Amino acid sequence: MNAAEILKKYFGYDSFRDGQKNIIDAVLSGRDALAIMPTGAGKSVCYQVPALLFSGVTLVISPLISLMQDQVKALNEAGVHAAYINSSLTEMQISKALILAEKGVYKIIYVAPERLESAGFMKFARKGMISMVTVDEAHCISQWGQDFRPSYLKIVDFIEALPQKPVVSAFTATATREVKNDIECILKLKDPNIVITGFDRKNLYYSVEHVSGKQKDYFVADYISGHANESGIVYCATRKNVDTLYEKLFKQGVSVSKYHAGIDNEIRKKNQDDFIYDRAQVMIATNAFGMGIDKSNVRYVIHYNMPQSMENYYQEAGRAGRDGGDSKCILLFSAQDVMINKFLLEKKEFEGTDFADIELVKERDLHRLRAMEGYCKSTWCLRNYILGYFGEKTSAPCDNCGNCHREFAEDDMTDDAKWVINCIAETRGRFGQNIVIGTLLGANRARLKEAGTVSYRSYGALAHRSEKEIRLLMDKMLEEGYLLRTDGEYSVLKMGDITRLKEETARVLVRRSAEKETPSGSRKTNKRSTDALASAGFKLFEKLRQLRLAIAKEEAMPPYIIFSDKTLIDMCEKLPENKQQMLAVSGVGENKFNKYGQKFLEEIADFRDRYPHAVISVKTESAEE
Is the pLDDT of residue 424 over 90? Predict the structure, then answer.
């Protein structure tokens, strides 16, 4: 079999997505590979397909137990024998798994990085059966990364201890230029084929709403009530916020669950399963929830608080719309969020890290927090901000985000900007933003007198402006690089590159919202994945969903592992009548057809008999066709 035949037989897809074949071909030719692909782009297929063509075993190094379990379940459902080895298994179970791998039963083994140091596992690995080592969530190897894990640094020692060098492939969704370089160097990738398919998730609609206090609660409750039949995640920065919001929503009758590290393990597992198995529509959680949760039909992710970095936000927001359906990513921002995150970063633990490295990581954490704050305050295209952060060139605004659809008034504040520069020059970079703003406003404060800024030429120069206007101006100047803000507990403002500002044509244009904010966020109504279905088609879709849920309960399996919503919609549109037609449905492979296909064919046939003239969708005129 070749790669395309493997893809069709086991995974039910007719063609590869962007970037997948490039990576697979490189790996099959024996070349190392590094792939940076957004969530939902199909990274796992890039190593699972070649793993089935290699003669030996593929080891997939993965950071979380839930991630491994989810992937192994999905592979076994597709007819691929796979196993995982981590701390959730007994030594006897691990020994049995390795024996079966030696006999060729398992082609893919997921393993925690800590396991690589175990003598028993090393003994198995040295038998020369390993064809490829795949590093999943590869950004964890970099101290520039937001999820740095010291255990990942042991991977290269493990690879070098093997009798023959295997192909090494690394995958991540979140990597800046520095992280990409770290992955390549630390893993010692040899002439790697580097594939970056881009960070744009076109099906995601980004918006930022400036709300605080109880307004956030009202926003969340209002949004959920307007999307009652949709699955969503609400992320909070603290356990307290999770508990409080959960109680409020639960009392309002919302189908809701909660997840954070302070909840008992068994209850936490049950809550997670309730969400995965569609018993709860909404999950309220800290960022402890989500990695490895491959639930494909999450239609919205709301951030109750600002995350600590763009990497975290991109990863967490990216849990929406994994099936390709249009989904919303809404961030509720208030100035207090910045203070909360600073406090959490100060409490961050650095186990097994050198002091010099700790200081470096802290500096980078604050740098990332500033970039995240910049996203929340930006009045320009949000998608372009995200893409620019990850080093992707942008052009025109996307016309598919909250800022692109919001009315803004534009104010030329070039002259004001020059007064800001003048004030920074007078301070000689000794003070923070509050002192500078107070000086420009000409405020009567003891702190300004003590600092001596009341004698500056710039004192009171912008007294005609409000504090909010000056803050907006400074945010824009920071964004443009005219100003710099130091990282650290007591940050100060310094002069940036003001060369452009000296040009006669230079303009500093500040945008501010020209309309009253509305609780519902964006002005655009997104298409839903089921919008192509007519009312009868939607009725069939619901019947197929119920059948999927019944099978999932019988099999003790998450519904989306049986078939995704996207696959069910394709069934509704294609109305297959036999095995051959069912195998033409996207996401139906041979093993899944053998297990479940006949039941779905019978459900569709029953529907066609009951409603022979029903219009199913815009693609399928009627059930008779």
Answer: yes
